[in-house]
Amino acid sequence: MAPEAVGLSEAEAARRLPDRPPPAPTGTGRSYGSIVRANVLTIFNLILGVFGAVTLIYGDWRDALFLGILVANTSIGIVQAGAHGPSSRGARARLLKECRNRR
């Protein structure tokens, strides 16, 4: 015995389709906060930060100028990830237009 079909018939689905509102955009992109967290909270930055703090506490501040690498590394990562967002969202939108569901 075949299972009974549940849901709309083909004709009813075709009739309702024009009345359906456009789908809401999905939040698939990363937030600015998550980009900043991903670039600040790294092992590399932790190591540089700890050695920088130790150098500032026990040594001369000029010996801790390597902390500029920490700031540069974090800044470059944030800028690159932020610049990547709009271009990937546009590509994703173009690809989703061409996608079709089959059942």
Written overview of the protein:
This protein has 103 residues and is mainly α. The chain has a domain at 31-98. It is 62% helix and 0% strand. The protein contains 4 helices and no strands. It has helices spanning 10-16, 32-40, 43-58, 67-98. Helix 2 packs across helix 4. The longest helix has 32 residues, at 67-98. It is rod-shaped. The two termini are 21 Å apart. The mean pLDDT is 82.
Produce a short descriptive summary.
The protein is mainly alpha-helical and 103 residues long. It is built from 4 helices and no strands. It has a domain at 31-98.
Radius of gyration: 26 Å
Task: Estimate percent helicity.
Answer: 55-70%
Shape: rod-shaped
What characterizes the major β-sheet? none
Q: What structural class do the secondary elements suggest?
A: mainly alpha
How many β-strand runs? Answer: 0
End-to-end separation in angstroms reads: 21 Å
The average pLDDT value, as a whole number, equals 82
The helix count comes to 4
% residues in beta strands = under 5%
Point out poorly predicted stretches.
none
> SSE string, helix = H, strand = E?
HHHH
